[in-house]
């Protein structure tokens, strides 16, 4: 660095003295004096002015005989130049630098010819600076450089400290190693969460997606979740994020079907410094949950049926026991005969219409439950269901019919007419299974009717509203349809049609 400063300073000095020499050589006073070979005091005066303005050490004007016309030492004016050999090199019209010892001491100097208007060389101008002055200027330049470096170092150090503090503040005071550890921990934690997690930015770039989210989307046959440029696919954006991006509000427990996969999603907007920056969604496959719900609902229907039959049977036993204790044996025989007749008539009617033992037994239980609740439950005379082995269809029918009858039981409780009708029919030729439940209950308003299949919606209180959601899932699994008609204080009718073809051999 020091050598560079010295070399640079020498270059500056050479440019300076060469420029001054050329300017002096073109002055009319200088040209006139050396042409006429007259030592004019104006030349010395002019040279002194230039010296004062430029801080060079000497300006010497010579004619072709190398006689001095100007010099810092006035006494040597009119005498020959001290180094004739060096000066003579410029008599051929060329320019050159040299380092020689003169009257003022050793130094660096530059020679340039003086040319008159006729283009003839009439003299020489020599401008120079002593080595002592050069050393002083080099020292000053180095001091400036060192000062500049010191200031630059201080500014850079201060700036780096401020920048480091700002970055550390932005990174919440964490060191790089800590950040790497946190990132690893975040991945482990997000992958351990049961729900799928996916977050996107304002420009739809995927910020985070855990392994469970990838698995769920793969199960839904959505392999291209993220495009080549890192954006979430248009289909997934529309299904999950479009509503949140539009409203900037949280979407909670939203159930939807993604390529026949039942999922429940929660979407929350991401706010950074009070600005909307994207959204994060948690996704959970609720197929297993709905399957469990259906199983539990079926179990509940069986339990309710058994409970109703048990109550009815105990009541009948109490009557028989009382008659025996009163020794009314004839009345006992008569009562048992009546029970036997009623029981066989009831069982015979249901089993004639419904050949499946599991489904017939379930309907018998519901019939007993209806009597216990003082509700008239009738099986439509045109009902028919063949005898099949207990399979997923019978389990699903028990769930669906049980939910519809339970809802009907509750709907008619406050009505004068407590009547419910069930129509269950299988069309073998068309492969269509029809279920229709009609009641004289309180009915529903148009607004309630729109929401009855929403998971968790119920007019009967909290922790209700899951039955019809399970029914809807069953209908979808058979590519079926459901239609609901209802009028307030008049009643409701629910019609279900399922596409199902039984194997040959079922009666």
TrEMBL record:
It comes from the Bacteria. The chain crosses the membrane at residues 145-164. Residues 271-502 form the Histidine kinase domain. Keywords: ATP-binding, Cell membrane, Kinase, Membrane, Nucleotide-binding, Phosphoprotein, Transferase, Transmembrane, Transmembrane helix, Two-component regulatory system. GO terms for molecular function: ATP binding. It is an enzyme of class 2 (transferase). It is a multi-pass membrane protein. Its main location: membrane. Its EC number is 2.7.13.3. Pfam families: HATPase_c (PF02518), sCache_3_2 (PF17203), SPOB_a (PF14689). InterPro entries: HATPase_C_sf (IPR036890), HATPase_dom (IPR003594), His_kinase_dom (IPR005467), sCache_3 (IPR033463), Sensor-like_sf (IPR029151), Sig_transdc_His_kin-like_C (IPR004358), Sig_transdc_His_kin_SpoOB (IPR016120), SPOB_a (IPR039506). It catalyses: ATP + protein L-histidine = ADP + protein N-phospho-L-histidine. It is found in: Cell membrane. This is histidine kinase. It comes from Marinilactibacillus psychrotolerans.
């Amino acid at each position: 660095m020091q050598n560079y400063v010295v070399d640079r300073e020498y270059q500056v000095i050479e440019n300076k003295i060469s420029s001054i020499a050329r300017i002096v050589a073109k002055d009319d006073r200088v040209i006139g004096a050396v042409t006429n070979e007259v030592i004019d005091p104006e030349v010395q005066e002019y040279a002194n002015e230039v010296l004062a303005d430029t801080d060079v050490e000497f300006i010497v004007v010579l004619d072709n005989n190398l006689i001095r016309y100007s010099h810092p030492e006035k006494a040597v004016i009119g005498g020959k130049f001290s180094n004739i050999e060096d000066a003579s090199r410029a008599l051929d019209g060329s320019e050159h630098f040299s380092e020689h010892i003169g009257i003022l001491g050793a130094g660096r100097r530059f020679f340039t010819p003086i040319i008159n208007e006729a283009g003839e060389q009439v003299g020489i101008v020599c401008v120079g600076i002593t080595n002592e002055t050069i050393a002083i200027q080099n020292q000053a330049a180095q001091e400036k450089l060192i000062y500049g470096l010191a200031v630059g170092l201080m500014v850079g150090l201060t700036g780096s400290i401020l920048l480091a503090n700002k970055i550390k503040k932005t990174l919440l005071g964490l060191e790089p190693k800590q950040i790497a550890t946190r990132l690893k921990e975040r991945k482990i934690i997000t992958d351990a969460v049961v729900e799928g997690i996916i977050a996107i930015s304002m420009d739809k770039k995927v910020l985070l997606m855990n392994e469970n989210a990838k698995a769920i989307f793969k199960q839904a046959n959505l392999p291209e979740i993220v495009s080549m440029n890192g954006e979430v696919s248009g289909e997934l954006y529309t299904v999950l994020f479009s509503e949140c991006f539009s409203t900037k509000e949280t979407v909670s427990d939203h159930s939807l079907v993604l390529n026949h996969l039942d999922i429940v999603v929660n979407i929350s907007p991401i706010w950074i410094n009070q600005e909307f920056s994207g959204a994060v969604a948690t996704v959970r496959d609720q197929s297993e949950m709905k399957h469990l719900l259906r199983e539990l609902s079926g179990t509940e229907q069986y339990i309710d049926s058994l409970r109703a039959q048990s109550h009815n049977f105990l009541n009948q036993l109490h009557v028989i026991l009382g008659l025996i204790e009163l020794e009314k044996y004839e009345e006992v025989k008569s009562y048992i005969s009546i029970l036997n007749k009623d029981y066989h008539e009831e069982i015979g009617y249901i089993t004639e219409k419904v050949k499946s033992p599991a489904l017939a037994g379930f309907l018998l239980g519901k019939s007993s439950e209806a009597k216990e609740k003082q509700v008239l439950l009738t099986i439509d005379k045109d009902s028919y269901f063949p005898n099949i082995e207990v399979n997923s269809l019978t389990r699903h029918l028990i769930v669906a019919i049980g939910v519809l009858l339970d809802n009907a039981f509750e709907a008619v409780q406050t009505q004068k007419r407590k009547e419910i009708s069930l129509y269950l029919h299988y069309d073998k030729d068309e492969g269509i299974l029809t279920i229709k439940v009609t009641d004289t209950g309180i009915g529903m308003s148009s607004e309630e009717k729109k929401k009855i299949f929403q998971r968790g919606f119920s007019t009967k209180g909290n922790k209700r509203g899951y039955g019809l959601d399970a029914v809807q899932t069953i209908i979808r699994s058979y590519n079926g349809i459901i239609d609901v008609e209802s009028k307030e204080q008049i009643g409701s009718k629910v019609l279900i049609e399922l596409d199902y073809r039984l194997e040959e051999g079922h009666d």
